[in-house]
Amino acid sequence: MDLQTITFIVVGATFALYIGIAIWSRAASTGEFYAAGRGVHPVANGMATAADWMSAASFISMAGLIAFQGYDASLFLMGWTGGYVLLAMLLAPYLRKFGKYTVPEFIGERYYSQTARGVAVICLIVASLTYVIGQMKGIGVAFSRFLEVEFATGLFTGMVIVFFYAVLGGMKGITYTQIAQYCVLITAYTIPAIFISLQLTGNPLPQLGLFGTVEDGTPLLAKLDQVLVELGFAEYTARKTGLLNMLLYTFSLMIGTAGLPHVIIRFFTVPKVRDARASAGWALVFIGILYTTAPAVGAMSFYNLIKTVQPDLSGNPQASLPYEQRPQWFRNWETTGLLKFEDKNGDGRIQYRKGGDNELKVDRDIMVLANPEIARLPNWVIALVAAGGLAAALSTAAGLLLAISSAISHDILKGMIKPDITEKGELLAARIAMAGSILVAGYFGLNPPGFAAQVVALAFGLAASSIFPALMMGIFNKRMNSQGAVAGMLAGLGTTLIYIFWFKGWFFIPGTNMAPNTPDHWFLGISPEAFGAVGAMINFAVAFAVSKVTAPPPEHIQHLVEDIRVPRGAAGAVAH
Amino acid sequence: MSTQDRSPQAYWRANMRLVGIHLAVWAFVSYGMAILFRGAEPGVDIGFWFAQQGSMLVFIIQIFIYAWQMNRLDREFDVHED
């Protein structure tokens, strides 16, 4: 059977599974739609959270990022996992105790202010929409590459699938579908990794293979260091970015992860406060399986790539691969345009090195997708990788769409415009908001704004500099009042926005940046992506200063804070 | 816990002490071992391991230990659910 047929079968089977689950787990109440009736087992919730969290970026792009950045990319690994420690200890149990449906709802009630709730809604929608655009694009790309259909056809298919299980099932449908999607994506990620680790280092565990030795007995990492230096690059294991930037970038990603609303609302679905703590641990176990495999995939696929074009692993240009002898996978990826060869010196050989005489351009995103082909694995493995990439994109898109639609139906419609809406009316509004969000996301997926990739920094910056501090102070500082929180959010958000726009252009319009986006122009060498950490500190400082000189919050708010700090009483679920 | 104080304030102080210890470990493995103190040791690159695997393993273990400690604390102070 040819690759395309197998891919159709594998992807079709997984889609049938998702829709089947959606029909079985239809949401009947707002409680089921927003929080899956708070009946999700902590291990199941951990698995769903992992699928929710790991997007097309984690599945497809991360290993490639590690391959080309080496040690520096560790900041993504630590940043995107370290946030779960903060969630488990600082946010999840208390927000679960609070027992409402959305993040803006907590901020609005804790700071007894519709303004605060409004600011939180805006942050949530900007952060989530940014993310969703990326997922939609990922779905379209995966479809068009593996099923050989038009980009738009692939995108519409993805939209219809998400529509089915997200609109029908709400959080309940999404949760159970995400569990299935996690199983698909983790199988698809680890199987090729195991084969490649076995081929290269003789160790079936990629995590150990990364520190294993290659054929000639030298450690894999030492070999990579040595080859890269010969080709003119910096060592794989060396730190290339500034020390302060590395620290702050990691910190920004950690607090950004803990502050992203679509992750936080997952912890509203478990039955008890203690389940919220354990659930964060389970989520990290399931995320960790992929995240500890990724560095091995990155290093090994990079090693394989270099070995293909420079078989003797030296810097000698005469020993590199003649273009006519390039392998089949090389030809396949050349047709996509993501792998490009230009014979600059006219010797008919492929030279990969740093600087102007480099003849090979490799798109980082092909590393995971091309992996099974490079290692000559059977077609069903390649088909599985396609299904895994789609599962990662679909699960994240659904979680984000739920966060957006609940902000619209619950925070804006019920919370601000029409508080007396019936449950039935709100459920209908939530479904309409969800359908609308899918259309908007689909539109942007089809016509991606040029700045889509850059806005990811904005999403993390928003979560790190506004949402995370506001939530944390709401729980840990009883004295924090409405004025302090709003001033803090605006100050943190404002400085972070200005810093990002300063180097990336006002509202990302090309050419309007005030200074070139290079390390020697950055303030203290801090990149725009890493500035969320500074924004958060400004938020904390301003909030404390303002709350000191204004009136303390009313009595009942102080009691509310005391109440969310103890677990007892949470089982009574939602009083509305 | 030998003290007689079973007030919500004492529960919160005990919780904060646990959180403080865990966050110190959390920062030590990631910002410390993986970034700041890396590179001193010849031969074995422990810092690289912490940066790409070790810190994540520590994070996972930490959350489960904290969850277990808090369950015990909840019962001790009689604030547990059900």
TrEMBL record, chain A:
Keyword Cell membrane part of the UniProt annotation: yes
Pfam family, one: SSF
Any Gene Ontology CC annotation: plasma membrane
One BP annotation, GO: sodium ion transport
TM regions (residue ranges): 6-25, 46-68, 74-95, 116-134, 146-167, 179-200, 246-268, 280-303, 380-404, 425-445, 451-472, 484-502, 522-546
Topology in the lipid bilayer: Multi-pass membrane protein
Annotated keywords: Cell membrane, Ion transport, Membrane, Sodium, Sodium transport, Symport, Transmembrane, Transmembrane helix, Transport
GO molecular function, one term: symporter activity
PROSITE patterns: NA_SOLUT_SYMP_2, NA_SOLUT_SYMP_3
InterPro entries assigned: Na/Glc_symporter_sf (IPR038377), Na/solute_symporter (IPR001734), Na/solute_symporter_CS (IPR018212), Na/solute_symporter_VC_2705 (IPR019899), Sodium:Solute_Symporter (IPR050277)
Protein name (database record): Cation/acetate symporter
UniProtKB/TrEMBL annotation, chain B:
Annotated transmembrane regions: 21-40, 46-68
InterPro entries for this protein: Na_symporter_ssu (IPR019886)
N-terminal signal peptide: none
Keyword Zinc: no
One Pfam family in the UniProt entry: DUF4212
Membrane is among the record's keywords: yes
Domain Sodium symporter small subunit intervals: 9-80
Keywords of this entry: Membrane, Transmembrane, Transmembrane helix
Name of the protein: Putative solute:sodium symporter small subunit
Species lineage: Bacteria, Pseudomonadati, Pseudomonadota, Gammaproteobacteria, Chromatiales
